[in-house]
Write a structure and sequence with these properties.
- This protein has ten helices and nine strands.
- The chain is an alpha/beta fold.
- The protein has a single domain (about 10-330), classed as 3-Layer(aba) Sandwich (Arginase, Chain A), CATH 3.40.800.
- Strands 1-4-9-8-5-6-7 form a seven-stranded parallel beta sheet, with helices on both faces. It has a two-stranded antiparallel sheet with strand order 2-3.
- Helix 4 (about 85-105) packs parallel to helix 5 (about 135-145) and helix 7 (about 205-225) packs parallel to helix 10 (about 320-330).
- The longest helix is centred in the first third of the chain and has 20 residues, at about 85-105.
- It is globular, with a radius of gyration of 18 Å.
Length: about 325
């Protein structure tokens, strides 16, 4: 488990992507006793050379300069900086790389990196959507070889898709709310050289829909690709109470897909899987969903039998969701 208090203090202004996301999550992990069962990994700052595996010097200098000026600035669409941004961004990327290295070296079975800011909207040359540097993309290049990226954030990981669109060594699979953000991104037709698999889902998909998508598309795509390492863009903004999406996923839905990802990793690549926190903006639901994911990855007993928030959500697979998943399976040639 990788957490770092320094990334909490950055951009401490009223905003969805705010320090309390991590503070509340850390608090729940600690009070549940789960943190005591995990290996704590200290974060480190990524080097400029590591960022250059993906990002342009122009983007890096823009973020660094804005951070040094210290005021609130926009460095891209919905992407802001302030004093401390540069350090927080380096820690988020470097923390993921540290976790990846330890899993690759078999020092850890798997890992969850609980840092901020998120990264999957950032492209090689553009910060966007709360994201400055694309940590998952940097990690994929850092690992090398055949890497699969599973992105279950409610928004499409357009930056990650763009970076690897013509790279057959990286499989990118995204489950997201259809045409939510960015508009027009993540369609079935966007397949790159065939190693991009998009699963646009209707609002209200719910746990059963995500499980069906994993069974019918995610698992077959990963088995066909046979990765040596799996990275997860773990955005919990598909949660039922999150104001940034309408996907109605509960803690148990996240527990299920995290557990399925772990099993796929064990079957395909010696269990090597590392998840990185992307979105998730409900201060009530994000900590609970993240705890469920961590318990699944660590093989721990669940802290509860059902979602503690007891929200009204779909309880079965809807016809519209089934059609959407089946269309994604057909588009991917599975």
């Amino acid at each position: 488990m990788l957490i770092d208090e320094r990334v909490q203090r950055w951009l401490d202004v009223p905003h969805s992507e705010r320090p309390e996301r991590l503070a509340r999550t850390y608090q729940l992990l600690e009070r549940s006793g789960v943190l005591d069962a995990l290996v704590r990994v200290p974060a480190r700052e990524a080097t400029v050379e590591e960022l250059e595996l993906v990002h342009s010097s122009r983007l890096m200098e823009a973020v660094r300069a804005a951070s040094e000026r210290g005021g609130l600035e926009w460095v891209g669409p919905e992407a802001r900086t302030s004093a401390g941004t540069w350090t927080a961004a380096l820690l988020a990327v470097g923390g993921l790389l540290e976790a990846v290295d330890r899993v690759a070296a078999s020092e850890l079975n798997n890992a969850f990196v609980c840092c901020r800011p998120p990264g999957h909207h950032a492209s090689a040359d553009q910060a966007m959507g709360f994201c400055l540097f694309n940590a998952i993309a940097v990690a994929a290049r850092h690992v090398g070889g055949r890497v699969a990226i599973v992105d279950w954030d409610v928004h499409h990981g357009n930056g990650t898709q763009e970076i690897f669109y013509a790279d057959p060594s990286v499989l990118f699979v995204s489950l997201h709310q259809d045409d939510l953000y960015p508009k027009g991104s993540g369609t079935l037709e966007q397949r790159g050289d065939g190693s991009t698999v998009n699963i646009p889902l209707p609002a209200g998909t719910g746990d059963a829909g995500y499980e069906y998508a994993f069974e019918r598309v995610v698992a077959p795509a990963l088995r066909r690709f046979r990765p040596a390492f799996i990275l997860v863009s773990a955005g919990q903004d598909a949660a039922a109470s999150d104001t940034h999406g309408r996907m109605s996923v509960t803690t148990e839905g996240f527990r299920s897909i995290a557990g399925q990802t772990k099993l796929l990793a064990e079957d395909l690549c010696g269990g090597r899987v590392v998840a990185f926190l992307e979105g998730g903006y409900s201060l009530d639901h994000l900590p609970l969903c993240t705890l469920a994911i961590v318990e699944a990855l660590a093989g721990l007993m669940p802290s509860w039998e059902r979602d503690p928030l007891e929200l009204d959500v779909p309880t079965r697979l809807g016809d519209e969701t089934k059609r959407a998943v089946d269309a994604a399976r057909s588009a991917a040639g599975l």
